[in-house]
Amino acid sequence: MDTKQQTQLLRTFRTAHRLTGAALFAFFFLIAATGLFLGWKKHSNGLILPNTQKGTDTELANWLPMHELSRRALAAMDAHEPQQAPHTLDRIDVRPGKGIVKVKFEENHYGVQVDGATGEVLQIAVRHSDWLEALHDGSIIEGPLGIGGGYFKLFYTTVLGGALLLFTITGFWLWYGPKVLRKAKRRR
Question: TM spans, by residue (predicted)?
Answer without folding.
Answer: 21-40, 154-176
